Amino acid sequence: MKIAVLISGSGRTxxxxxELVEADQLPVEIALVxxxxxxxxGLAHAEAAGIPTSVVNRGEYATDELFGAAVFSRCRxxxxxxxxxxxxxxxxxxxxxYSGRVVNIHPSLLPAFGGHGMYGDRVHAAxxxxxxxxxxxxxxxxxxxxxxxPIIWQTPVPVFEDDTPHAxxxxxxxxxxxxxxxxxxxxxxxxxxxxxxxxxxxxxxxxARGPSxxxxxxxxxxxxxxxxxxxxxx
Length: 234
Prior knowledge:
The chain is 36% helix and 21% strand.
């Protein structure tokens, strides 16, 4: 599955993808990296891996629509099947031909603590101020509103009494490093469908050897364990 990765900053999620691809643990081809700033640190990761890059600066376009058109024009030229936002901070309207083919990850359990201006430590500070006991990550399809698209996957992360925004962010990012690749694997395997605004996830196909020890199996086992605990408590 050919993907484009959109970044605005350090590119640590991109770096995670690259390491997994190199280890043959992520079945994607990163065909293009687009940055919203020429100073985005993640560009160096892409260039070191020999991946084509492009910079699309929002300030050079009069409207969000023109900005989005410039971004997706590059994606079409690269013939990518999926656009993956990874620390992308700009509103980028999705054209009809890419509807259902753009995903994003957010560092909270949406719809809580999402929306315009809610990113990075701002999210974690808001979680702590509210006194939440659990936060997490959400992978979702992107529509034309901030953090409002159909939810594909969520992973909970505990909040501790002595947490700071920085400490909580580090713990949440560890969950992101597992959740986002897991969703990309499911998308590559054709397991994810969008049905009237709701995501359906099909069961994994088992090979003769089985997916023993795979990252996908571990994620599925975690979900099964949570469901089992819920059933036992009812």
